[in-house]
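Predicting holo structure, calcium ion bound.
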Amino acid sequence: MIRVDSDAQPGAPVLTVTANVTINNITGVLDFSSARYTLLPDASPAPSLGPLSTLNPVPAPDPSEFTIATINLERFYDDVSNTSASDNDANFVPRRAKAARVIRDVMRLPDVVGVVEVENLNALQGLANELAAGYTPYIFEGNDPSKINVGFLVKSRITVNSVAQVGKDTQYSPPIGSPQILNDRPPVVLSAAINGSPFTVIVNHLRSLIDVSSTTTSGENPRAKRRAQAEFLANLIQNIQTTKPQEPIAVVGDFDAFQFNDGYVDVLGTVRGVPTPATQVTLASNDLVNPDLNALVDTLPEAQRYSYTFEGNAQTLDHILLNSAFQQRFRRFAIGRVNADFPAAWRTDFNRTERVSDHDPAVAYFSLLPPINRRR
Ligand SMILES: [Ca+2]
Ligand SMILES: [Ca+2]
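Done. Tokens:
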């Protein structure tokens, strides 16, 4: 993020910035203040204001493709207060319709959607009904105090062999105090097939970066928990790779981690099987995954490598990772632009499709092989 202090130089005009505009053509002096790099525009030429990017769906899949996607639906609570008022959304019905528009018009009705931050089966079943596109919902309630969970919407042309939550009771040991529950939102593993070709998808919502710089938290320890979750997931992936070496595996969801080492814990490197050495990260991990996984965000042009905006900084938290068996059938990857670029106030504008959530959805496209009984 770069601040602009528009009238800092003598004679420079005040720029009045409302929601959903861009500032273009700035020439000026680079300063550092308020903890940010700050541009002090020259009086001439004056910067200009322009429109922000518009809603941009992912490409429609062609008939030779199937798609696997992920979306964080940001506290997708139904309108039934199960245990406390905080999990009751009075706007659930219009918000559900808005979420359905995103999955249909922006994500193009993926065959498998890994969903994140959904309350329960009632909320997800309602979304499947709203879509009326042949989706079956799967979700398991976990340990999150805010009652958000992960699950799947799966289209009818996918054969579901099993769907299972893993690690709900698993604990980890923080540096201070007694063992704690590891997985607030335990991963859910989908074992499936399309046209007789099997594949596995694991959906996740890992521990956030909140308080990650703290080393004194009693009870939960953010860094230790992030590392333990990454290692738990790495072991889960490697267990499947060991027992079924030919199995295509996609690991999706909100990892609350960048595609590179953040200096505290290299979450994505550990899950992918390429952990950063201990000289470059505070809490290092061993290499638990072989062969390694790829992060599809690395296939995008640099300007497209974001799914979220935190305090003005665009970043990727939502990922699709592929093992080498799935990489062989990978065609392309896209992030739908419908949430991260748009004002938070639009969340409750139900005439708009934008900003049902704070995260953009991601979609991966794969070759659809002919039905297995017709192959030679
Ligand atoms: Ca509820
Ligand atoms: Ca490795």
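Residues 1 and 313 are 5 Å apart (CA to CA).
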